[in-house]
Every structure is written in C-alpha cells, then in structure tokens.
Amino acid sequence: MFLTDGLPSRSYDCYVIGAGPAGITLALELARASRTVLLFESGTATEAREDLPNSINYGHFRDGWWNRHSVRMLGGTSRIWSGSCATPMDIDFDNPAVGVRWPINKAALTPYYPRAATILDRDPAIFDVERPVTPGFLYRPFSRSGGNSTRFGTKYFETLGTSLMIDVALGTSVVGLDANAARSAVRAVEYFHHASSVAQRLMIDPRQKVVVAGGGIANAQLLLQPRSDGAVPVGNEGGHAGKYLMEHPHYYRVAELVFDEDADQWWPGSEAAHALVPDEQHTRRHGLLGCGIRFSAKMAEHPMAEYLANEHGKTFYWYRCNVRSEMAPSASNSVSLTGERDVAGLYRPAVRCVIGAEDFLNVERTLRLLGESLIESGKGRLRIHNGRLYRSPDGGGHIMGTTRMGTSQSNSVVDADCRVHGYENLFVAGSSVFSTSGYANPTLTIVALSLRLSDALTGAA
C-alpha cells in the first residue's frame, strides 16, 4: 500500500530506507517470507525530488554527477539505468593488487545470481560465459537491455500498491537514527514528511530490523548525521562511513581492435555486449586491477585488417573499444558533510572522487598486455589512443564502497551479512557495501546481495 499522508500506528518487522533496486528487492523478498515491511522513499511514484541529495562535487566527475545518479523516487536509480549487467570475477573479491579483501567470496553470491538475473529480466546463462580468446584474456560479455532496462518503480508498482505486507511511505525522508544506551541496537528512526514539512520520531524495538538502502551517497550521508548529544553518529563508530568511495571510470573509444574472429558469433542475439578481460592468472602475474575492454559491432574495413588478412590468409575484423575499469579504494575519495542543511534537515553531502595515477596506468597496462598477446598469437592488433585515456575519463554512475563490508569495525562499516558492526538490528543494502568494485556494473550484485540479506534476516540462509 502507498502512504502519502503520514504513517499508520502499526509496527513492522522491518523498516527499509530507500526504494531503489536494493530496497524494493529486499522488501518483496521479506514479504514473501511473511515479514511486514515499511519502505521509506523521499520521492513520489512518478516524480523525483530534484532538491536531494543536493551534493557538492569535487574531483574528476562533472558538476551534478552524483545528484544525477542518486534518483529520489520509487525505483531509485533504476529509472535512469542503462541496463548493463555482469557478474564479478572470483579475483575481484580478493585481488592482491587492490589490497582490500571482501569478507565473502563470489561463491557466497553465486546461488543468488540466477534469481537476480530473472528479477532484472535477463537470461542467466549469459553470466556463465567465459571463453579464452587470446593468451591471458577471456571473452566475458556484459548483458545489455537493448533499451528495455528494468524500471523497478514501474515493474513493481502494482505489487507494492496492493501488498498487504508492504507499506511504502512516499515523500518521506529518514533524517536520523538513534541508538540505545549500549549502542547495540537502533531504538528510533527520525523521518521528515515533505508534504507537511513535519519531522517525527518512530520508536524501534531491537527485534525489528532497520535496513539503510538509499544508495551510495544517501547511505553514507545518513550514517554521518551528527547527533544532538554530540555523540558519534549511529553506524560510524569506527570512522569509516563515507570513506572509500569508488566509481567505474569509463574511457570511450580509447582503443581500436583488429581481431581475427567475428565476436557476433560468440553469443547469438543482441543481448551480449562484447568484452575482453584479463584472466585471473594474468591479473595476478601483472598486478592488474579489474578492467573490462568492451567493443562495439564490427566497423567498416580498416587498413590494418586488410594488411593482416593478406599476411595471414584469413579475415580480420575492426572494432572500437571502450573501457570500464576499477578504482583502488582510497579513504580520500569520500562522502562528507557540509555545514548546510537540505530541505529535510539533513546536512548536505560533499563528494570527492579523484581517479588516481595508478588507476589510469592500470588501464594502459592492461591494453598494452592485450596488444602484446594479440601480436604474439597472430590474432590481431590493438591501437591505444593516449589522449582519450588520460584526458577524458567519464563514469558509469556507479556509487560504491561508502559503507564497505569488512571483518571488523576497524576496517569497515558492515560485516559479511551487511550488519553494521556492533548493532543487532541495523543493516545496509546496496553497492555502498562493496569492499572493492572490480570492473562489472554493480546492479546485478546489488540485487543478489539483497536476496542474500533477506535470507539472513529471515533465517533462511
């Protein structure tokens, strides 16, 4: 049921803050397990709030970047999602070159990926494709939507509106969390109803669960909000909330690939977006970060393709390459608070995200290794466009790492079950819990993590 005029007096098993892919997936799964859910959403079902999060930007990404990719309405950022999906590689959870380990491995998420793919209207089989194509590199396609990306607010509008287990508080922003004296549980949620401009307080029992699922900026923003008594904000006892922000730098038309295979034959239909990635052995040997070299449909004839065809007596194809890559986690890339409040009373976020020299060099190194492999194997050539690599990086709108998962309060915000360290009833969902980013788009893993969290909350895991 949608609530627009305030909250009812009933209590719920779980309070989920944010109605994007993470929050909606979790709410629906909990409802299937006979748990009642109150889902908070700042925006409406059809209109996004333009005044939230109203962040201030510093670093490589253009003005308005983080606001544009923090959509406050039913469905969250799925409203603007391009639809690309991929699973991480095993090494993305423990890559020595990154220097940070997840407290889980990929096997912990593998059972959830097929269900996550179905929720996102994808063929799960595409995520099993790993085909060696040249020494050190695999064909690992992305799944793309073809213009029909899953919009959670649209797809699940009727289900949410008629559910007897889920209430959705539209136009309602959570602005604070309060803990008990022992700091072992959340005891109250403070929220602001935009239509009435009224702030209220909702008491929480330790047996009730609170899940922060507002996205990479909002999750950190909430856990950083100062308390009126001057105590450390709830969820930031270890001082890590907001730190280790990661994006996926994108480099467009950064290279040209001439190759002796027609990639369109590797996966039938239009769902696959072709990509080459270093295999695990190559990644470890050369100390690489995650890097996906995505290439387009075949282009017109190219002089190098003609030369190689004459030289080797076989057909070569020409592709333009885009790269999406990993950023090494850095505490200096972060969400912090300004001294200015927004319309709901939250302190506005300031976002700093700078692509490091090693992040750039990793892309160049990976491309050079691919070029060397192609020459040695006789399978093709690669030409790198230096200017497009170093002077014009873009992003994917992937906001990760700001409440990261780890082994203790000394290195992270949440544990392997997405539970905030030290709290029995406070959890975080979404890509803000990613310990590292790899190269893969995060949405599939966001949904898989929400499915896994539901199992943890209901005892089904």
What report would you give on this structure?
- With 461 residues, this protein is α/β, with parallel strands linked by helices.
- The chain has a domain at 1-81 and 151-248 and 328-343 and 397-461: FAD/NAD(P)-binding domain.
- The chain has eleven helices and 23 strands.
- It has helices spanning 21-32, 65-68, 113-119, 152-155, 157-162, 216-224, 280-286, 303-312, 357-377, 386-390, 443-458; strands at residues 2-3, 14-17, 37-41, 56-59, 94-95, 100-101, 131-134, 137-139, 142-143, 166-170, 172-179, 186-193, 198-203, 209-212, 250-259, 272-273, 275-278, 291-295, 317-325, 334-341, 347-353, 380-384, 426-428.
- The strands form six sheets. A seven-stranded antiparallel sheet has the order 7-8-17-18-19-15-22. It has a six-stranded parallel sheet with strand order 1-10-3-2-14-23. A three-stranded mixed sheet has the order 4-21-20, covered by helices on one side.
- A hairpin with a 6-residue loop joins strand 11 (172-179) and strand 12 (186-193).
- Helix 1 (21-32) runs parallel beside helix 11.
- The chain is elongated, with a radius of gyration of 23 Å.
